[in-house]
Amino acid sequence: MKNIKTHIKIVALLGVLLSTFSCSDEFLSPAPTAAVSGANFYTTEDQVFAGIINMYDGIQGVNDTRSDSNHGIQMEFYVTEMRSDNTRTKSGEGEASDFDFFRVQPENGLVADHYRSFYNVIFRANKVLESLDVVSSANKDKFEAEARFIRAYVYFNMVRLYGDIPLVDKVITPDDTDIQFTRVPTAQIYDFIINDFQFAIQHLDNSGSKNRGSKAAAQGLLAKVYLTTKEYTKAQLLLEEVMKGSYILEPNFSDVFYNENNKEVIFSIGFIQGLTQDSQNFSAEFLNGVGRTVGVNYVTNDAKTALDNLGGTRTAVSYRQDKLQLTQNQVAKYLPNGEDGGADGKTFTGLDPRLAGNDWIVLRYADILLMHVEAILAGGNETSVGAALASFQAVRNRAGLTTAVTKVTLEELLDERRVELAFENQRMFDLIRFGKAQEILSAFSIAIGGSFSSTDLLLPIPQNEIGLSRGKLTQNPGY
């Protein structure tokens, strides 16, 4: 079911490179404290290329439960989807449940893991960028573009989650506390992100793996940046460039997730089933009694109702009833390699679900089409522009909702994004970008007995990072 040829080539090449040059453990696992690590730079072009693969390895994260490992994208659902009205813990207990009820504190270890992991990816990108002198002129711009693409992608997520953050644009040492612990205004972070994405667009193409940066991925993510900064015309132009390409909506919604590297996916984080170093455990964590930290990212009743009413054919692919606890519902888009666990939801044929190989989709064509509608809407309450209607209708048609639309309202677009991209870590960002987070999450919090306030729109800066800075790194309001 899973096309892993590209992954195998990357892993094999990395193994060859590691066997042919001396490199410390720092190469694959840089010191986990934010963006600081050793200053040993790559000395050959092959090493720089291996460093590029190492960036994706950092996003992929380590499939273990150690508190000092970097778990990369495998932590993202906690700090995005579970902070919204889409998902929650099964039991309402433990540290993960703090996200359910809007009571996250700076000491939360899951937040610390996410923050540390992604600053570590920034370190890896910066290390590539500061080693480009050994790269041939034929590859130098492409290597730089790919590293800057990853750096921009990570910073875009970080600035939306934490607000003003340290802007680390070079490999730093423990002595560089001014860079490591000085929070930079959000507007400056966005300027930096835009500049990196623009360079990536100029020097990347769309001929490579979907598990690596590309021109279309940079265009699509930069368009989302522009929607966030309310530069709608710039976003529309970029999105229409992507729409001229060869990407499509897969006719079968299930194939988006279980026929990987399909024509709808623009950028995804690759995983390989069964290999501890290259698999993921979030597919198991979303289930009941299968993973190591089980019963997280369960579907809220609110999200279930939205999918039941608006999802069309997407609903059956998006969630399923827990086979052991019939009042509970599980995310179904990432069932381990497509297996549903048999009659008890726990029995997988020849597969340890804790070593699942499902790729994590960062950007796909349906998102491009819905962002296209958003760009044309341009902050207004509704649009009847033909191009917007066509993009909106295409997404709905694929879901079997073929009634012709004559206008699209802001609320309808937000609802459509919710059911199309359910459990793909988009909901919280969408609520904030659409200016609806305060209203919707306040009502949701009251209904579940939570304690939402406006300060919950940002995560806390991890207390351990503030401690390392000896107070130089300041905390977000409300924490």
From TrEMBL:
Domain SusD-like N-terminal: 73-227
Highest classification ranks of the organism: Bacteria, Pseudomonadati, Bacteroidota, Flavobacteriia, Flavobacteriales
The protein's name: RagB/SusD family nutrient uptake outer membrane protein
SUPFAM superfamilies: TPR-like
InterPro entries: SusD-like_N, SusD_RagB_dom, TPR-like_helical_dom_sf
Localisation: Cell outer membrane
Domain of life: Bacteria
Cleaved signal peptide residues: 1-24
Alphabetized UniProt keyword annotations: Cell outer membrane, Membrane, Signal
UniProt similarity note: Belongs to the SusD family.
GO CC entries: cell outer membrane
Main location class: membrane
Species name: Polaribacter aquimarinus
Domain RagB/SusD positions: 347-479
